[in-house]
Amino acid sequence: ESSIVGINIIQDGILKYVNSKFASIFGYSVAECLDNMHINQVVHPDDHELVRANVRKRISGEDSTIHYTIRGVRKSGRVIQVEIYGSSVRYKGKMASFATILDITSRVQAEQEREELISELQAALDEVKQLKGMVPICSHCKSIRNDNGYWERVESYIRLHDGADLSHSICPECAEKYYSDMNIYDD
Questions:
Q1: Which band of pLDDT confidence, cut at 50, 70 and 90, is reported for residue 180?
Q2: Region at 149 (left for phi over 0; alpha for psi -120 to 50; beta for the rest)
Q3: Bridge partners of 73?
Q4: How many Å apart are CA 184 and CA 160, to the nearest integer?
Q5: What's the pLDDT tens digit per position in 84-120?
Q6: Residue 35, Cβ neighbours under 10 Å: how many?
Q7: CB atoms within 10 A of CB 21
Q8: Cα–Cα distance, 108 to 70 (Å, whole number)
Q9: Per-chain mean pLDDT for the chain
Q10: 79 to each of 65, 82, 109, 170, 171, how far by Cα in Å?
Q11: Which end of the chain has fewer CB atoms surrounding its CB within 10 Å, N or C?
Q12: Measured between alpha carbons, how far is 36 from 58 in angstroms, rounded to an integer?
């Protein structure tokens, strides 16, 4: 009765035993829960089949213990996240499903917020990488202004920031313009 987790026993889909913590998690009194309440009243409709299958597995002996999470529904209609640890038990001479329930709504919300924050930070990092990719270059001599505000040759900047070494060559247009007497590209 003084457990910090909710405890229930289910037979034929009906709550046969609940402790005060179970009732509190779902916003009911113990008396309300034990007044022929069907388990579906505290389970989100989209999770009814999952709960039904897991209860059946425990009672049939197919799975002696089981652990899963579902959405629960409080008396107020508020949807919560619950984690269930279940097993089978003999109750009043008949097989039943025994489970402990934890309200993990706060944890799930914190995990969702964490994932959203990670996504936002990743987007910000991608944006910073794009901004860092804008490199001021002199339109005349082609020197690059580095992060410290100093101008350096493009070759030095690329070697320092990218680790690549540049080799020099001459494009066909410059070869014609500056070295027309050498016929560099005449093949």
A1: confident
A2: left
A3: 79
A4: 32
A5: 999 999 999 999 999 999 999 999 999 999 999 999 9
A6: 10
A7: 19
A8: 11
A9: 88
A10: 25, 10, 12, 69, 68
A11: C
A12: 21
Percent of the chain at pLDDT > 90 equals 56
- Residues constituting the chain: 187
The first and second tokens of residue 177, run together, are 């313009």
- Locate tokens 């989100």: which residue? 44
Q: Are 17 and 9 in contact (CB under 8 A)?
A: yes
Who's near 9: CB < 8 A, 6+ residues apart? 15, 16, 17, 18, 89, 91, 96, 97, 98
| C-alpha to C-alpha distance for 89 and 40, rounded to whole angstroms | 20
Residue 99: both structure tokens together:
């489970």
* 152 beta partners: 144
